[in-house]
Amino acid sequence: MKYAAAKAPLIGVAFYLALIVPLEFSVTLGGLRLSPYRVVLLLAFVPLLLRMVRENKLNAADYLITAHALWALLALCLYGGLASGIESGGIYIVESLGAYLLGRMAVTSPETSRAMLQFMLTVLALMAVFTLPESLTGIHFLREASRAVMGGSALPIIEPRLGLHRAFGSFDHPILYGVFAASTFAAAYYVIGKERLKMRALAVLGLIAGSAFVSLSAGPFVALACQGLVLGWDRITKGIQMRWSILISGILLMWVAVTLASNRGFVKVFISYFTFSPQSAYNRTLIWDYGSAEVARHPMFGIGLGDWIRAPWMSDSMDNFWLLTAVRYGLPALMFLVGAIIYIGIKQAQMVSRDKELNRFRMGWLAIMVGLAVSGVTVHFWNALFAYFFFLIGTGVWMTRPVTHHSKIMLLARLAATLPPQPVLKKQH
Q1: In sequence order, which residues have a C-beta less than 8 Å from that of residue 339 and are 6 or more positions away?
Q2: For the purposes of burial, counting CB atoms within 10 Å of the CB of 87, is it exposed (0-12), middle (13-18) or buried (19 or more)?
Q3: DSSP assignment, residue 353?
Q4: What number is the average pLDDT over the span 274-280?
Q5: How far apart are CA 354 and CA 357, in angstroms?
Q6: Distances (CA, A) of 360 to 191, 261, 305, 341, 386
Q7: Which H/E stretch holds residue 33?
Q8: Coil, strand, or helix at residue 164?
Q9: In sequence order, what are the beta bridge partners of 33?
Q10: What digits encode the pLDDT tens for the residues 351-389?
Q11: Cα(351)–Cα(359) distance, rounded to whole angstroms?
């Protein structure tokens, strides 16, 4: 029995494929845009919810993500009225809680996790066939082909960087494509590479890094860098007790030191050094100033989809996922979401076992979450990437539980495969 022989869950495959379908293939129903991934989530939402409740294995993360989605619904109702709030809040619940449920209920074991990851990497490799030439030529192959078939508005004009064009892939913006690609780096390292950088693993990691690079966006670079730092720390501190406590303490001390040594605060310093240009850094600093002031004025329920106060010449785009969450839906919504991620991470850390394979899955998920959490300070997750982020959160839940009976069988099979063949004793007559 091979560990990698399991098939990726059908609903997970359908959702992942729907994520990469260009926006042009969406349909509008009564003012509601139904993109392919939203259709998948709408069809799967109730069955997945009923199944989760029926199995009676709810944990704190389930309640926290549900509270986050419902709080956002309440904030939107307070902002736009009941009818408008239910419409916009309903789709928010589908994209957040629905995507979380899909990841939680579809990816439930080492077998399904590995199969899903292998499928995701295959899709990324196929997409790279288009995005790498896209970066060199400036021809947005996937989006332009979609526009030719379905129609739609022209793509935004984005200035090249480093002498290269920024690749969209099938997404709405290069940032989204880059973060989407970068999100698989740590999982590929731990699960595919098995911490040994052989040629196949190096090729896979190079593919991911190259796909993220052609977006030429700071967010994907930050996501890759943070994952790399976690991987490096894990590699060089093997055998050291309390190594993760040491790392967290070091980060906190650095936060305090930067805050005390600078009059700008840690977040502003971070933004200044993790952007492509001084202009971009300046703009993101202003976003932080005006956005945090908005949170201070509306801490409980935010401002919904209302316009935030800013300088007249500034764009309405708020390039900070965490800040925008607090601005729109209030601090409680932000804390529910952050609390769910932290809870899953802590529970995973408590479940470290003798099975090195399972531990690699946990490390991969934790490193990915760190990368996405930090990159979220410099970019916003919207549309397909937003739903994908919640899907990834859900995929980490199975790792918070003890090894299942099925997983134990798989572990024994893997151990047995490593043993030398035993001689067969002939019966004596």
Answers
A1: 60, 64
A2: middle
A3: -
A4: 73
A5: 9
A6: 6, 38, 40, 18, 25
A7: strand 32-34
A8: strand
A9: 28
A10: 876 678 888 999 999 999 999 999 999 899 999 999 999
A11: 9
Decide: residue 10, CB within 10 A, 0-12 exposed, 13-18 middle, 19+ buried.
exposed
- The tens digit of pLDDT for each residue in 176-217 reads 999 999 999 999 999 887 655 677 888 889 999 999 999 999
The DSSP string of 99-135 is HHHHHHHH--SHHHHHHHHHHHHHHHHHHHHHHHHHH
Dist. CA 123–CA 19, nearest whole Å: 11
Return the structure tokens found at 198: 């052989």
The model scores a pTM over 0.70: yes
CA atoms within 13 A on the CB side of 150: 17
Residue 40 amino acid letter: V
For residues 404 and 409, give the distance between their C-alpha atoms in angstroms, rounded to a whole number.
9
Place of tokens 């290069």: 174
CB 36 within 8 A of CB 25: yes
Q: Which residues partner with 32 through β-bridges?
A: 29
At 17, list the tokens.
Answer: 């494929």
Q: Determine the Cα–Cα distance for residues 171 and 183; give it in Å rounded to an integer.
A: 15
What are φ and ψ of residue 109, in 5° steps? -160, 165
Cβ burial, residue 382 (10 Å; 0-12/13-18/19+):
middle
> Residue 151 phi/psi, 5° resolution?
80, -175
Q: Minimal CA–CA distance to 121: which of 187, 40, 172? A: 187
| CA gap 84, 87 in Å, rounded | 5
Q: In 3D, which of 377, 366, 362 has the Cα closest to residue 341?
A: 366
